[in-house]
Amino acid sequence: MIMQDMFSLKDKVAIVTGALGLLGRNHCIALSEAGASVVVADLDMKASAYFALKYLKNSIGVRLDVTKKESVLEMRDVVLQKYGKIDILVNNAAINDMFEDPIAATEQSKFENYPLELWQNSIDVNLTGVFLCSQVIGAQMVSQKSGSIINIASTYGITAPDQSIYLDQNGTQSFFKPPAYSVTKGGVISLTKYLAAHWGKTGVRVNTLSPGGVRNGQNDFFIASYSKRTPLGRMAEPDDYQGAIVFLASDASAYMTGANLVIDGGWTCW
Questions:
Q1: From the candidates 156, 166, 181, 226, which is the catalytic residue?
Q2: Is the pTM of this model over 0.85?
């Protein structure tokens, strides 16, 4: 096969959940530029449709709540009615806890005080959401005897957070990276392996992409602290994962399943 053809997604249909997030938008653009029709799936139907129309080709926007199976089933039916098949699923939707009150953030994000409600919300979206979307869309792929599922995890699903990078410039711990994010992302990696083994002989491949931290309006002190902790000396840019998404979605990774592709600037090598 010609190398260019191996990476081509021409005539493929891809679903991206959490598609309006920072990385979600870039995943959509990468898949579209490689030739796929992209289903922009997020909670805001109008915004999803607008993004698909403005930035992508032969693509649509749909409303999706990944925590509700009926919503996932409705999305599947819309996609099949429009395109007749589903080739790629990117399980990108996730909660990454943010605390609006900086004064309360330190105590609330600390493990000893971390609210059960926030823990449960993360479980519902980050883990159950991947389970439901994989169950529904994966079953469709099994019936087609082909498909690629890409689960988005994190370096924090592999290693514990380095809480020292959340110190402010006065040396005060202004925030702790909460436990739910790490636990759910670790669960995503484990679920990937389970599904890869379960569907190995069906033609459905399941892999994980574990990104490192992405530059997204953080203050200069945090960016410097994170970059110092990273061998490449910088945070990721939002488009640094586009090549990986196309690779995992395409025939270029045809003999790859159950793997965790770590792209983190070297963060986890130390």
A1: 181
A2: yes
